[in-house]
Model the fold of this input.
Amino acid sequence: MSNAAVKRTIVTVAGAFALAVIMQTASAHADCAAGMAACPSDLGGGCVPMGSVCCPGNGYVPIGAICEKDPTGNWGAIAVATWNDSQGEAHAIATVKENVPSLSQASTAALLDCQKASVHVCHIVGTFANGQCGYVATGHNAKEVRWAVSAAPRDALNNCSTGGVTCQQPVGGCNNK
Done:
């Protein structure tokens, strides 16, 4: 695994809602050990096993399980997988689920969709609730993968596209209030 650096910036958007903007290279997952991934900062930001559902307060549960004190409402979650193919080329895929009745259910749905689409273990990189929005843009060149999460599609694309990487149009959406 690469010891590539991860840049984390907090972007504040309307209504004092903050969503972490995360850009990373292919195999790095913040400061987490191999096989682990960083949860979004609004859930504690700790390291959890890849493919786990991040719970509030730095906890986690397996896919399909319910977090203790699971927040309800209209939740959305963003999942990302990054990998290198047999020629060493870097790749990324992202999925977003919105308007799901709980944080655990939204995270599970995003993880399962991501893993189905990529055949790789995914991790949650963002969550949003009750009228909030979440978008993710991904891009890569031969050796580097970037992804960025934001409440606005333009911000996700702009943050992803730094450093000479061409990123795809963001995917995402907004929750009902």
About this structure: The longest strand covers residues 72-84. Confidence is low (pLDDT under 50) at residues 1-29. The chain has one domain: 7-174.
